[in-house]
Structures are given as structure tokens and as C-alpha cells.
Description:
- It is a single chain.
- By secondary structure, this protein is α/β, with parallel strands linked by helices.
- It has one domain (2-201): Rossmann fold (3-Layer(aba) Sandwich).
- It is 30% helix and 34% strand.
- It is built from six helices and eleven strands.
- It has helices at residues 12-20, 28-47, 83-92, 141-150, 168-177, 206-211, and strands at residues 2-4, 52-59, 62-69, 74-79, 97-107, 113-121, 129-137, 158-166, 183-189, 192-193, 199-200.
- The strands form three sheets. Strands 1-9-8-7-4-5-6 form a seven-stranded mixed β-sheet, with helices on both faces. The chain has a two-stranded antiparallel sheet with strand order 2-3. Strands 10-11 form a two-stranded antiparallel sheet.
- A hairpin with a 5-residue loop joins strand 10 (192-193) and strand 11.
- The protein is globular.
- The termini are far apart.
- The model has no long low-confidence stretch (mean pLDDT 92).
Amino acid sequence: MIHNLSEQHSIFSTFLGEMRDVNFQKDSMRFRKNSNRIGFVLGYEISKALAYNLHSIKTPLGISKTPLLNDQPVLATILRAGLALHEGLLEVFDKAESAFVSAYRKHSSAEHFDIEVEYLAGPDLTDKTLIISDPMLATGLSMYTVYEALLRNGQPNRVIIAATIASPEALIFLQNKMPKDTLYYVGAIDEELTAQSYIVPGMGDAGDLAYGQKLNS
């Protein structure tokens, strides 16, 4: 199931609009802050799909029957672009374990590339809820490659994908490759994907905008 937060008007669209805006993009601190806010909102929306049990909470005046989250998920993100988004999710799931994966496009030509995973650090995923976040789902190949790499740490019982912007092509690709019960939470779905696999209108390179332009290697 795909949850597209842009289908309803909310302050979320302001955060996303500033991230897209070339004038606001000059302020990397604000870009990171908005990415963090988007992660928080995505986390809140995702929390509605998780399992809860009723607990008795003692207050100064009595007992409150309160539904509490059964288990914290594992939050995984793709370095480096996903760090600010990850921090927003971590503010919601503040007791969650984290996993970090380094993945990049290795081009054989201007229009063809493979995804290389160089680094993975994370906890045991066996029978846990895994939330993988990445600002941009362009082709979906990075997300799927990272998911496969994470399986080295065990088989989760549930997978949730969180992204700021996605293309229809990426969502179709992932729905055909990921477990059938995977949930997708995206801030917006942009209709155009260029021949070089960049999302239009998109917002540019999230990693560069948040942390500075990298040298090409």
C-alpha cells in the first residue's frame, strides 16, 4: 500500500516546498531541518500502522488505560543523503535501533549504472519491523539493493519504506521486488524520470544540499 502525504493539505507541503525551492536550498541548515521535519511527520504517519497493547499508566490522580507501542522498529537509512531524514524518524521512534548502509551509483555510461554497497552497520533484524528511509526513490534500485544487503542481518517480519519524493517507476519496481506486504510512505510522487534517472521536478541531490557538494570519484 502506498501512502502519499501530498494528497492532503498540511504543513508538510510547506516543508517539502522549501526543500524544492532553489532560493531556500542556499541554506543547508534549513534544508536539513526540513528533511528532519519530514522524517518526523513520516514517522508519525507510520506509527499508525504499527501494533499496540493497552497498558495501565498510573497518574497522580488515577489510572489511565493507554495504548503503547509493542516493539520499536529498526530504522535503516542510506548514507549520506538519508541522515537528516533518519534523525526525524528517530525523534518519533526514540528507542529504536539504527542501521546505516553506504550505497552509490556506479555508472557504466551516462544512462546505465549499478548500485554498489560498500558499508553496512546494523543490529539483528530477525522478526523485527524494518523501516528503510531515503530522500529520493528514483528508480528504486538503490532501495532494493540496500534491502537485500540488510537481509545479511536477519529476516524482518515487516518492511516499511519511507521517502521524501518518489517516482511512479520506482514504486512499481519496488512493488514487484519487495515483499508483497511492504508499506510505502512518501511525501510526494513526481511523474517524470529523466533518461539519467533523475526525478523531475524533484529537488536535486539531497546529500549535496544537506552536507555540501561532494567531489566526483
